[in-house]
């Protein structure tokens, strides 16, 4: 530990500045989305088995609902552009723009050089939760995903049903590619329903039992044609441990809803980012 300078208190007392004031981001037309959702028709559903993952597709303008069924369960969500799977969800930039956890009206942004909204959250039955006394909240973009490499480092295990492996198998099966090729496309997730934060004393990532109950759901609007990949985490409600078969786990339900013709005429799918890409050369 180094010695504090004489003006340490004054340096610490400086008020923070928001890194990315987000008032100038394009505002999602939530009223338009909600009006379209009222007459939308369910077209597909996928049941994601416990400790496993499944892919689903949603054309631009469709709605995707992820629901808790049977028991409290968190999910690790990957999103790709359906036409170019290398364009994928960018949890780090989403965190920088919206904060550590996302809810209704906030967006899931895609990777460079595209960096555009992939999805906009339109309904969140856990929005009441807010931020608890531990600094915990739900639907985080801080936790990457549980994976067998970290488990191996920390506990010398060979566990094959971490979300990272579940997402890898699921994507390989969906695309018809090797596990290796699929693994390079798996990326940091939206932790759906997971309740997490950072401890104030050590700054460590923590999880606690999710407040999700059967019937709760997170719903989002597909801004572009999407390939989704959702893992029902082996952590179950994440009240105790993950990266093992110890926790009680439950499936998650994904439902797709198509808008009625004409209800989205005032909307268009966002174009890729308009930065010219020259990087000063
Ligand atoms: Zn997991």
UniProtKB/TrEMBL annotation:
Pfam families listed in its UniProt record: DUF1989
Record-linked InterPro entries: DUF1989 (IPR018959)
UniProt domain DUF1989: residue ranges: 48-227
The protein, known as: DUF1989 domain-containing protein
Taxonomic source organism: Falsiruegeria litorea R37
């Amino acid at each position: 530990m180094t010695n504090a300078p004489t003006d340490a208190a004054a340096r610490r007392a400086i008020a923070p500045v928001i890194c990315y004031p987000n008032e100038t981001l394009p505002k999602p037309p939530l009223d338009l989305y909600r009006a379209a959702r009222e007459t939308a028709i369910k077209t597909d559903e996928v049941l994601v088995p416990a400790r496993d993952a499944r892919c689903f597709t949603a054309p631009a303008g469709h709605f995707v609902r992820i629901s808790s069924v049977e028991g409290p369960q968190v999910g690790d969500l990957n999103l790709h552009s359906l036409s170019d799977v290398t364009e994928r969800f960018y949890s780090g930039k989403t965190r920088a723009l919206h904060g550590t956890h996302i809810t209704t009206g906030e967006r899931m942004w895609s990777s460079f050089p595209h960096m555009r909204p992939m999805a906009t959250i339109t309904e969140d039955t856990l929005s009441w939760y807010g931020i608890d006394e531990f600094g915990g909240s739900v639907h985080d973009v801080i936790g990457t995903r549980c994976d067998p490499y970290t488990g191996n480092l920390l506990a010398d295990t060979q566990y094959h049903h971490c979300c990272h492996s579940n997402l890898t198998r699921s994507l390989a099966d969906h695309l018809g590619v090797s596990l290796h090729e699929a693994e390079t496309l798996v990326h940091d997730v939206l932790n759906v329903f997971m309740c997490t934060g950072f401890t104030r004393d050590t700054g460590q990532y923590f999880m606690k039992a999710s407040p999700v109950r059967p019937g709760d759901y997170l719903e989002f609007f597909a801004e572009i044609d999407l390939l989704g990949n959702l893992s029902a985490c082996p952590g179950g409600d994440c009240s105790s441990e993950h990266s093992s078969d110890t926790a009680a786990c439950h499936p998650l339900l994904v439902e797709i809803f198509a808008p009625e013709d004409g209800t989205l005429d005032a909307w268009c799918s966002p174009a890729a980012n308009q930065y010219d890409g020259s990087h000063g050369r």
